[in-house]
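Issue 218. Parser rejects a valid record. Input:
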Amino acid sequence: MTIRNSINELKLLIRSRFGLIWIETSDPNRLENLLESAAEQLGVHFFNWTSTHGLCRHGQEGGIYGTETIGAALQTIESLEAPAVYHLNGLWPFPEDPMVVQRLKDATKKLTGRNSALIVSGQAIAIPASLACIGAKFEIPAPSQGEYLQLVRGLIQQMKTHQAITVNLTEEEAFRLIKSFSGLSLMEAEKILTRVIVEDGRLDGSDLERVLKAKKDTISKDGLLEYFPLEDSQIEIADLKNLKNWLSKRKQIVTDPQKANSFGLVFPKGILLLGVQGCGKSLCAKAVSKEWGLPLLKFDPSNMYDKYVGESEKNFKRALKMAERMAPIILWIDEIEKAFAQSACADESGATSQRILGTFLGWMQERRAEIFLIATANNIDALPPEFLRKGRFDEIFFVDLPNLEARREIFEIHLRNRKRDPYAFDLNKLALESDGFSGAEIEQVVVSALYTAFTEEAEITEKILLDEIKLTHPLSETMAEKVAALREWAKDRTVRANS
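Output the parser choked on:
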């Protein structure tokens, strides 16, 4: 939906006799512009209320005397006869005062049917039950590429009146700059761009990396999401050929969605990766991001839960909203069973987990945004059975321990990544001796061997690597029963990711 369509939808709500409208937003300036436009097109006045200035009519200096408290402001709104849109800015979190709730009900009743409405804005709004039946919730779409472009042009022009600015962007760099703002509010994008320009008085191709870094910091500030730009998605994965083939068949759906839609295909939902720890499940998310050319968002469930009632659900919904704003993207949830573990307890934490699970399942089923979900899990017993139902994911893959050929390739990758010539070692022998090792355990063998060689002031040798292999007890030994049980469970229920 474009911002113009949003204005029309908002006007329709007001004309449809909704006197109370709740709007979620993290960009109050953009909301204010939208409300001003809607009021102007409806031919009514626009008022903005804050606790510091009271009720102010748009275009006039100063507020109406004595309307700084919300109760007094609502009383004044009831007495005004002219149709208007009233924005109650800063009312959230919603006051628990029953008198305010009643005043809000009375004012809503008075405004209904008069091309007028009360607008209550905020983030992660939970509408009070006593008011839910008389109001409507409205969502503003994420800023379009055109809005970001308009912001960049306007900001540059404005800053040029105060300081000398050099702008040197190719057409491709300008496109990448605008695209890099995807998922951010206009206010967030403006702050990032202003800081980048002010630092050296320039805007050129070298600033793209700084913009992405600032975007990553903005998205990650509450600890719920971590942003991985495409430039960071450099990763090599050994084997998993069946999974790679499945993903390659769907790449064109992502890179050429119009052609896919005309053929009757839709954006893929996602995959669930089950398997032994350390076998490359988590690396797959970064690899898919690189292969498909889509940014990656990692959701960290451990930071979702809050001690205050209702806050955990708000955190979760806020994370999903951010993901939708950034679409098309890859959304990665690592060890998803820890976020939605089955709980037999009836305490508040168990109830919260169940509510969040219900929200997530509903979102998975109904989402329209182009989000490819990659979820990984190690413990099938802790995973809610609802996740395994057909249709939640496009496919469920089982990632097993690497075979001989894959282990050889893993040794080659990790030796080369650490600036060693892999062909100076007998890779076949190393692969044979490391039977039952996961990819992570093989990497640790290489790292430990380097530490040993460094301590002995010598170069890493094949013997040192073999000694480290002998000293390592892999999970396939220490947790043999669990690994065997997981393989047995996955045999007829999943698709094998390995070749």
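Fixed in the parser; the record now loads. The two ends are 43 Å apart (CA to CA).
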